[in-house]
């Protein structure tokens, strides 16, 4: 009985800690950015995502966004990377999170939206996902901020038709809104055990290194 109780308590504390991180992470990022002298960077690039962006299972210093910042520093570019990833988040959260980020006086100069993986894994309706992302795009464009939309692939858990239609969401929205479409960030590491955590979903330190290289090569032309 004691063992069972310990397991329940451990699971509850794990859940509670993740909840606190999920609620506070975007605010901490904004506070951190606000406390840096404004002349130390001119522009902010926000990565709005889920656990893939947050860096589930690895140290902050190993996340692809942290590594991106290091690459930016090495080239002496005047950009600050904001990791706005929250584990478990879906596209339904995008609009509210973007509204919060836009309250900052020092608004982002570029948004990279990489959401939808959890929607796909949970079998959310394709049309709902599409509408959620479109609302996010509308909100960002209202502020005249450029957008890069990250492509998302999902496994055929709900059938090939669903996964194919899900993939089309991002291609069609990018075309419809005339915005940049970035290839799926896990394209080169998905399905490779040596580049992922034991769960087979989230990248490990080596995986994040590859993701950072791929993402940086893609976004570099837009860091002007």
Labels describing this entry:
12% strand; alpha/beta; 224 residues; Rossmann fold
The helix tally amounts to 8
Structural class: alpha/beta
Pick out the low-confidence regions.
1-17, 30-39
Strand arrangement within the widest β-sheet reads: 2-1-3-4-5
**What's the CATH H-level homologous superfamily?**
SGNH hydrolase
> Approximately how much beta-strand content do the residues carry?
5-15%
- Can you write the helix and strand succession as a string? HEHHEHEHHEHEH
Counted up, domains total: 1
The N- and C-terminal alpha carbons lie at a distance of 61 Å
Average pLDDT figure: 88
State the CATH class: Alpha Beta
The CATH topology comes to: Rossmann fold
The coarse silhouette is: globular
Using the 3D structure, state the CATH architecture. Answer: 3-Layer(aba) Sandwich
Work out the radius of gyration. Answer: 18 Å
Largest sheet, strands/sense/barrel: 5 strands, parallel
The share of residues in helices is 40-55%
Report the count of strand segments.
Answer: 5
